Amino acid sequence: MPEEIDKVGNVSQQRYEQIVAALREVVEQQTRGSFTIGDRALEIEPMRERGGQHAAPGEELFTVRQSLFRLAEDIGLAYKTVESARWTASRWPKDKRQKGVSFRVHRTLGQIENEAERFATIAKPPAGKTRWTVDEANRRVGRQVERPASPQEKITAIHTLARDEDVAAAVTTDFLKRSQVAAKVPDQDKVRVVEEFTRDDTVAVTAATGLLRRPDVAFKAMSDDTARHQVNHAQVERGRQAREHFEDSSPVAPAVRHIDRTVEFLDLVTACHSFVAAAGRAVPGLRDRTLGEDERTIVHENVAKVRATFSELRSAA
Q1: DSSP 132-153
Q2: I want to staple 85 with a disulfide (CB 3.0 to 4.6 A). Which of 37, 240, 267, 296 is the partner?
Q3: Buried b (16+ CB within 10 A) or exposed e, 107-131
Q4: What mean pLDDT is predicted for residues 54-73?
Q5: Which residue has better confidence, 225 or 36?
Q6: Antiparallel, parallel or unpaired: β 49-50 and 53-54
Q7: Model pLDDT for residues 96-126, shown as the tens digit of each residue
């Protein structure tokens, strides 16, 4: 027996079409039944205007809700089912209901406020379609579809699924691991994401350390005056803190402080000796030379600076 090529699931194309024809009749019966429930609910509680328009589902008056609850319980249905059927029936007079269009599509397109537009819309399926589907009806009224096709519909579906923060975090992590996805994110948005992820100081330190280990990144970062100043300031501050910690906690700190003072004393003596030696070499060469007015002014200014320095040294000693 030759293998059947055209199959839908586990049945042949021919059998599938038979099933569709039979189920369309079932759906038609369900549609008629739902409209019957809605019509009877309307008979019990006609639509009443609230705020200039008929009350939408969930906005009925308390007395109306009581009647619909009683009807729902008496026929074994949920209150929401009866409420929805009543509202949908109110949107579609009997002569405007379309044969072959499901009750759910009628209910969705019932959200079109303009009556003439609503009736014209349901009578004409979308371009390229022979009949209305639930997704096409949702697209028409701007609701989320069950099978997204366009990029925007897919984005909306992802946002809906990721409303939970834990889910959103997991999805974002997975997406950013895909290099092709990350490459398509605009630079400005990448910067914003990095800033958001590094609000935590520990994360920021780890990220900054890793980035500054890259020579090109470090070079470009240090070309920014503010960044360079902050790095220099951090280095000085780190040195100061390390010195304070050492002096407060190390048992050899007193000896080191003594050595520091000795080194400073030697530096000072060396500086004095260097000045005397340099001056001793330069002054004899000036005895047979007449200095100009500008030269004398410069010498006098520097002598004044030397005197001031020696005065501070004498006071410190």
Answers
A1: --HHHHHHHHTPPPSS--SHHH
A2: 37
A3: bbbbebeeeeebbebbeebeeeeee
A4: 80
A5: 36
A6: antiparallel
A7: 999 999 999 999 999 999 999 999 999 999 9
pLDDT reading at 272 higher than 70: yes
Q: Taking Cα atoms as reference points, which of 124, 156, 128 lies closest to residue 143?
A: 156
What is the spatial distance between Cα 239 and Cα 281, in angstroms, rounded to a whole number? 40
4, pLDDT greater than 60: no
Helix, coil or strand: residue 287: coil
The two tokens of residue 262 are: 């000795």
- How crowded is the C-beta side of 288, counted as CA atoms within 13 Å? 2
Helices (H), 142-186: 151-161, 165-176, 179-184
pLDDT in tens, 24-63: 999 999 999 999 999 999 999 998 866 445 666 665 667 8
- CA–CA separation, 92 and 35 (whole Å): 9
Name, in order, each residue with C-beta under 8 angstroms of 306's C-beta and a sequence gap of 6 or more.
Answer: 275
Is 175 in contact with 190 (CB distance < 8 Å)? no
What is the pLDDT of the chain when averaged over all its residues? 83
Going from the C-alpha of 216 to that of each of 155, 186, 212, 222, the distances in angstroms are 36, 21, 9, 10
Terminal alpha carbon distance of the chain: 117
The percentage of the chain sitting over the pLDDT mark of 70, rounded to a whole number, equals 87
Q: How far apart are CA 89 and CA 136, in angstroms?
A: 20
Non-local (6+) Cβ contacts of 139 within 8 A are 126, 145, 153
Place of tokens 């309307």: 42
Name every residue whose Cβ is closer than 8 Å to that of residue 69 and which is 6 or more positions away in sequence.
79
